[in-house]
Write the structure tokens for this entry.
Amino acid sequence: MLYLEDLVVGSVTELGSVVVDRGELVAFADRFDPQLMHTDEAAAAGLPFGRIIASGWHTGSMWMRLYVERVLGDIANLGGLGIDELRFPAPVRAGDILTGAVEILEARPSPRKPDRGTMVVLGTMHNQNAELVMSLRSATRVARRPEPAGD
Amino acid sequence: MLYLEDLVVGSVTELGSVVVDRGELVAFADRFDPQLMHTDEAAAAGLPFGRIIASGWHTGSMWMRLYVERVLGDIANLGGLGIDELRFPAPVRAGDILTGAVEILEARPSPRKPDRGTMVVLGTMHNQNAELVMSLRSATRVARRPEPAGD
């Protein structure tokens, strides 16, 4: 288990890849973001992107899975604080291979509570053509390493 | 269809409600955010929130569904630009009844492209106890009303 003190600001971790499944893309959008640009291939042909594209919430959720598996699951996570600067500079399509990464931007102790602090990361997803398709900043409350019991 | 010119800055729209389904909460987290605080009731009993809570990505996605159904589906949406200040001030639990709202904060023409502009909204979700459980700012590219064809 990694505590706040163990986090190295500036370190970058590759998160591996996920293939965007067409069925999941459509099912996610049908449930959570039912716009024709996400759900209807025929309608999407007449829209700016030409083919259906993933909901941004789906792309973000796919990044989260990679982040939890490779990084966050090993950290003494006390809960998510929020996300900023979530951007989608290029569309995500069915069959795309998305590769995630995360850089630790900050790891600072709480000024008031000695047992915790805040980690801020920059998360990214690139597609198989090395295009950036998503970026975000995520802040998480992280425990500090417990003091050994004294006597 | 509503164009940029039709949007009223300061207007607030109630988006209706959604009940947080336990099965969906766990299934979403199993796929996209597999942390014990979201997936394992027994483990969650020993964690800060005491019971499983929804992934923030799930809560955001539930808000998106309400927003698309009640507001965004009627707007000449050219694509999402991004999300900022996504916050989760209180936990979301299975069985909660979440009620969404959206306020239009900005509706400004593009300085360069005469056919479009940017809409910025403040989105919120409150639970059945009137606690704010999520807030965000979302920016969307919106078409301006086409000029009637001249002669």
Observations:
- Residues 56-70 of chain B form the longest helix (15 residues).
- Chain B has four helices and five strands.
- The interface with chain A takes residues 28, 31-35, 37, 48-49, 55-57, 60-62, 64-65, 68-69, 72-73, 77-88 of chain B (CB under 8 Å).
